[in-house]
Amino acid sequence: MDPDTTMVDPDEVLLRPMQRTGWKFWLFSAVMLAIWAFGMYEWTVQLRSGLQVTGLNVPVYWGLYITNFVFFIGISHAGTLISAILRLCKAEWRRPITRAAEVITVLVLFFGAGCVILDLGRPERALNVILYANGHSPLVWDVCSITVYLTGSLIYLYLPLIPDAAILRDRMPQRRWFYRIVALGYRGTPRQKKILETAISVMAVVVIPIAVSVHTVVSWVFAMTVQPMWHSTIFGPYFVVGAIFSGIAGILIAMAIVRKVYHLENYLKPVHFNNLGLLLLVMTLLWFYFTFAEYLTTYYGSEPDHMRIFTAKIHGQYAPLFWSMVLCCLVIPFCLLVTKRTRSSVWGCVTASVAVEIGMWLERYLIVVPSLSNPRLPRADVSYAPTLVEWSLLASFVAAFIFLYGLFTKVFPIVSIWEVKEGREKALSEVEERIREALPGITPDAPAVGPAERQRRDQRDAQPVLTPAS
Amino acid sequence: MTRWGMVIDLDRCTACQACVVACRVENNAPPSGPEFAHQGRDISWIRLGSIKHEEAGNRPGLSLAPLPCMHCENPPCVHVCPTHATTIDEEGMVAQVPARCIGCRYCTTACPYTVRQFNWRLGQWPAPLDQGRNPDVSIRPRGVVEKCTFCAHRLQRARDRARYEGRELEPDEYVPACVESCPAEAMFFGDLDDPHSEVARQAASPRAFRLMEELGTRPKVIYLSKGE
Questions:
Q1: What is the pTM assigned to this prediction?
Q2: How are beta strands B187-191 and B145-146 bridged, if at all?
Q3: What is the ipTM of this complex?
């Protein structure tokens, strides 16, 4: 069955990051941890002196921390949601990218939740949210849905990790005790396989509504108030679209880095960038649609309280940020992703993705701050400018996230070994079977060609059928 | 049931800010200093702000008006507080429990009147200001939200006195510091549900309006428009 029988193991390259660790990794860790430590030091400053060290004031009670919270939770939609959807659609090209995506979700959720802790005036009382929970408060809904999402994504990351941990247990001389625990005695028996596959497909279904609910509830923190340009029925889906948008961009950036660092060009191919790039293009257009609908409705309603914020964004104090957002979220990604030449190239996708991440962060900032700085009862002119503490904590969280992501690639294969193997061995016949089932005029007898020829033909013929499955 | 409320007559109000000063002294608002005030972090439970309203004869008017907490009957802050640290009692007073508040400032952002305050730092009273603090009102710690209480400690005092003397609470026994201090007698306070009270009579005036009535928050601070 295996076409690469001449080689010892075609997936040896996937184990290499766990076997060898060079000076580059230590340097990378040192830099990231230094940035993280600096932010943590700034946090102790904030803990000692209170929130007066931030740029927050009356009426801009919320600023960078809440922006980062929404942004990080948004990125978390990368993994679980995208990977679950692709799994359910049986998009075979997903196999090398699902894990890289799922890890983003789990890690970034901790930092999203952490941002809220940073924002609290009394972080030591955070547990009051559970002890004295007020069911009416969207913040309590948030705590519930993020907890459920974190649990769900952890399970969903862990399940497909079990067979790989078993492979590592059998193959790796180092850390064998650790992999033995993680593998839970998995031996790949047919019964174990069946249970695992059932569990994965159940989780893939369960995790989608949870993921959608998470960012909807995040948006409700704003939409459930009566504040102008927050109190909007469109906010739920608008936030979810933005979240998936920044999530896909996150996967693309992670994929490009992992591919470069670990030489995974054979696994993360132009077709993966092309397909995810197409998804990103769709989300670009959806994001534009929602943004346009939101702003046009506000403009036509032209209520004075809303218009003060609207004009501050379009041609006032926030105009530079607003138009940068449009440039980063629409113009750059659209131009790069609309043609196949740039879309299927790594640099094209990465440039578009970096622009999208910047643009989506700006979008979150432009939702939080302008509404607060233009309250219904005008106050003395006070503007908000984030301080070093706030910026360094953002940098600190980003650095810690990148470090933990790097650490994960050193402990587990970032490309799922067993899923790639399974794809190589079984998916071709499965796909053939699926096409046979769905289309008329294909005889049930196997065509009279050898396996190599059949594979060549299948690749040629089946690929275009599979691609739009995303 | 008693329903405490306030009426502010903009025809009489001279915007002298006596109410603002009285409130600060009564409720131990920490002195800010110019720098802190400039950053927009001064704590004042009642402030002077400009509000739009209709004057007599449907003329649009703009007034400087005292803005305390509106003690809404449908308070947005109470709905959004994740920890029940802000509550509305059966007499309609919206209260804050600093000991439970986690300082998330959701209530401050949800309040359409921007009258809730946050303790950005620990309040400091340089001597001799520390001698003038009101022993009836506790000092709030750093990192929590605080707000106008309608001087609930005064109500507590009045109730205690009445109970000690073995009688019912008289309607005029309790007023907040701002109302007491108003030299123009522009502020009225009392039970809105008592038809004989001055505040209920004033609230029934054709000049009466509430701030942002369209939001459905049903404030219990009622303004009387100019132009009599």
A1: 0.91
A2: unpaired
A3: 0.92
